[in-house]
Design goal:
254 residues, alpha/beta, eight-stranded parallel β-sheet
């Protein structure tokens, strides 16, 4: 089965941790061996930088060198920084299709104007917006990244403003409750969906078209998330939708 992994990181500089699978090049080869033909890859270096642009440029250059799997840069955007219009225009000229937002790290939430400015500009440039709802279990995070979990519920009250598709990464089902059935253009990845039969329950709640395969590699083991998908008692059409077709359709819709 072919897969698109929408939640990958090329680096892992968090203190006290080592990346599962070794250096980025080796990990990408491992992903390809598992059937992942494309991944959307971000950079923790860009997250921790005062201005993410230099790290984003490095990420874009690194991704351009990979064909198996294809690696799309999911660049970091801090919408509280100045010249946001210019930043999005520069990313579009570089061929970027995916941006990642980290609200707690950059001092805003999903009810605040910086988030909505980013969504509006992403729609203008035909980009997908990813919101990183959690870096890891807060109980295990070092103080430098012990940020609160993102609250996605403001999306429901302002659903009409969602001009670009928003993918909630690392957002367990208990965090969004009944949000998704009533809000179009919001999607979730599989990385932190836990519990027996969780994918089947989510499909019952929101439909198979809103779920995307995400491994959160190298923080989580890719093989574990892959097993969660392929061992789920789902119809083949749902497996293929989550594994590949939903992510492909999301990019094509922009």
């Amino acid at each position: 089965m072919q897969l698109i992994d929408v939640n990958v990181w090329l680096d892992y500089p968090l203190p006290g941790y080592e990346a599962e699978g070794g250096p980025a090049a080796e990990r990408l080869r491992q992903l390809a061996a598992m059937g992942i033909i494309e991944c959307w890859a971000g950079s923790f270096a860009a997250l921790f930088a005062p201005d993410p642009e230099p790290a984003n440029r490095e990420l874009i250059a690194t991704c351009a060198g990979w064909q198996r799997p294809r690696v799309r840069p999911a660049v970091t955007v801090n919408p509280t920084l100045p010249e946001l219009d210019r930043r999005f225009a520069d990313l579009a000229r570089a061929g970027v299709r995916i941006v990642r937002l980290y609200p707690p790290a950059h001092g805003y939430d999903l009810a605040d104007e910086p988030f909505w400015q980013a969504v509006t500009l992403a729609a203008k440039q035909r980009m997908v917006v990813q919101v990183v709802c959690s870096v890891e279990d807060r109980r295990t995070q070092p103080p430098s990244v012990n940020w609160p979990l993102v609250d996605p519920t403001p999306l429901k009250a302002a659903a009409a403003r969602l001009a670009a598709p928003v993918v909630l990464l690392n957002c367990p089902a208990r965090r969004y409750g009944d949000l998704l059935p009533g809000v179009r253009n919001v999607f979730v990845d599989t990385a932190m969906q836990e519990g027996a039969g969780v994918l089947a329950r989510l499909i019952e709640q929101i439909g198979a078209t809103r779920l995307l395969f995400g491994s959160y590699s190298p923080v989580f083991y890719t093989a574990s998330n892959l097993l969660k998908l392929i061992e789920s008692p789902l119809p083949e059409r749902h497996l293929r939708a989550i594994a590949y077709h939903n992510a492909r359709r999301l990019l094509q819709s922009q």
